[in-house]
Design brief:
By secondary structure, this protein is α/β, with parallel strands linked by helices. The protein has helices at about 20-35, 60-80, 95-105, 120-130, 180-185, 195-205, 230-240, 260-270, 285-290, 295-310, 330-340, 370-395, and strands at about 10-15, 40, 50-55, 90, 110-115, 135-140, 165, 170, 190, 210-215, 225, 230, 245-250, 275, 315-320, 345-350, 400-405, 410-415, 420-425, 435-445, 450-460. Strand 5 (about 110-115), helix 4 (about 120-130) and strand 6 form a beta-alpha-beta unit. Helix 2 (about 60-80) packs across helix 3 (about 95-105) and helix 11 packs parallel to helix 12 (about 370-395). Bound molecules: 5'-deoxyadenosine and iron/sulfur cluster.
């Protein structure tokens, strides 16, 4: 772990990030480990001495997408070569993990292939290529954890540097029938509390006010704290002692790990935002069983009820898959009913996609593509209606908005509501970084607009 100040960048680094927030976090960390080698960010791949493609394997045509992007990057590399410039091309993330060897066989011009657990070794890999040429592939699940090897000096993650992601848990042991994550990210591990706290303190010292804790099963967090196994609400209690940290979120959670202590913390610890992403995937017990989710639709409803009892204004979001093998019209209707019962603030929904090597891929009764498509349209239109009415329900209310930056129009500020909605309003740029009261006046397609409620600003 290095605390040395980084050199002024002498080499351009361009990182392309696909997929989940964890990949966004990983991309920032890859930039961190390369900074001591003189790599600094450049906007255009044409200006980059190294290009990293951080990939996602979760749904269809992942590898094809990677090959088509690599074709584009190869042309850039060739054009730079004509100008006498070298370009390293790296493929990172879950496609690299799952299909590393095939990737190098089909795209031999790729210099580096690395999985999500080995990017702390990037400097070694780059040095090896400089020494010996050729390609390097590292898709181990090493015994050491990358978190112990990442530099302390972190790059700003977001514009304004007021909100940040922080990975606290990684991997998954749940083995849902459809999902590649347990194979690409490996077994579940939790980062020790002191390491999380140290990173959170550094983020806050650099101006961050809102942290989103990341993990594939973030609510299964069980990090060590001097020999004591610590749960997510206990970690949050520790993080809320950091002066200046205003808001905490966490994503993604599994219903099975939604312990009462965590639900209670939504009532008792004001640092938790009234917002929870809790994927349910389906509303049919038969499909939930086939998916190996480990709970029924009613058990999910019961968790939501307890959450709403604890925090009545909590906004709920979810993930859905339509067309899992064996899903009938009745099963799909059970999903629609669950959505009608719960009323989500927003949600992601996907057509089931067969992932090689996962149990569901080999099951009989695959659902026809056009049926999946029709179900997806129906579900998405219901979810869109619910999202609209959730946003509409905020019109006329006053909300605490974290001011994150200036808007596109002059005099306009952008901010983030407790429910994760973007909010625009007029105000002075000196408010950036503060939490202000905004009276919400209008609902736009994907955001809200309003007016500053008063000059009364929450002390930060
Ligand atoms: N097909 C469709 N959607 C999937 N997801 C994960 N695997 C698949 C798959 N094979 C969705 C789930 C998960 C989200 C991150 O991606 O809904 O919660
Ligand atoms: Fe995938 Fe299921 Fe693990 Fe989520 S809980 S990462 S969907 S296997």
């Amino acid at each position: 772990m290095s605390n040395q100040p980084s050199p002024t960048p002498t080499r351009g680094l361009h990182v392309i990030t696909w997929g989940c927030q964890m990949n966004v976090y990983d991309s920032a960390r890859m930039s961190d480990v390369l900074r001591p080698l003189g790599y600094g960010p450049v906007e255009r791949p044409e200006d980059a001495d190294m290009i990293i493609l951080n990939t996602c394997h979760i749904r269809e045509r992942a590898a094809e997408k990677v090959f088509s992007e690599l074709g584009r990057l190869r042309k850039i590399r060739e054009a730079r070569q004509e100008d006498g410039k070298q370009t390293l091309i790296a493929v990172a993330g879950c496609v690299a993990q799952a299909e590393g060897k095939e990737l190098l066989a089909r795209a031999p011009f790729v210099d580096l292939v690395l999985g999500p657990q080995t990017y702390h070794r990037l400097p070694e890999m780059v040095a090896k290529i400089a020494r010996a040429g050729g390609s390097v592939i590292d898709t181990d699940f090493p015994t050491e954890t990358k978190f112990d090897f990442l530099p302390q000096e972190a790059a700003p993650q977001t514009a304004g540097n007021l909100t940040a992601f922080l990975t606290i848990q990684e991997g998954c042991d749940k083995f849902c029938s459809f999902c590649v994550v347990p194979y690409t990210r490996g077994a579940e591990i939790s980062r020790p509390v002191p390491s999380v706290v140290a990173e959170a303190e550094r983020l806050v010292a650099s101006g961050v006010k809102e942290i989103t804790l990341l993990g594939q099963n973030v609510n299964a967090y069980h990090g060590d704290w001097n020999g004591h196994t610590t749960s997510l609400p206990e970690l949050a209690a520790r993080l809320s002692e950091i002066p200046g940290l205003q808001r905490l979120r966490y994503v993604t959670s599994h219903p099975r790990d939604m312990e009462q202590a965590l639900i209670d913390a939504h009532r008792d610890n004001p640092i938790f935002m009234p917002y929870l992403h809790l994927p349910v995937q389906s509303g049919s017990d038969k499909i939930l069983k086939a998916m190996n989710r480990g709970h029924t639709a009613d058990e999910y409803r019961e968790i939501i009820k307890r959450l709403r009892d604890a925090r009545p204004d909590i906004a709920l979001t979810s993930d859905f898959i339509v067309g899992h093998p064996g899903e009938t019209d009745d099963d799909f209707e059970a999903t629609m009913q669950l959505v009608r019962d719960i009323k989500f603030a927003s949600a992601y929904s996907f057509k089931y996609s067969q992932r090689p090597g996962t149990p569901a891929a080999g099951q009989p009764f695959q659902v026809a593509e056009d049926v999946k498509e029709q179900r997806l349209q129906k579900l998405q239109s219901l979810l869109r209606e619910q999202q609209d009415s959730f946003n509409a329900s905020l019109v006329g209310t006053t909300q605490d908005i974290l001011v994150t930056g200036t808007g596109r129009k002059t005099g306009q500020l952008n901010g983030r509501s407790p429910y994760l909605q973007p909010v625009h309003f007029e105000g002075d740029p000196s408010l950036i970084g503060q939490i202000v009261k905004v009276h919400i006046t209008t609902r736009l397609t994907n955001s809200l607009s309003g007016v500053l409620a008063s000059e009364e600003v929450k002390a930060v």
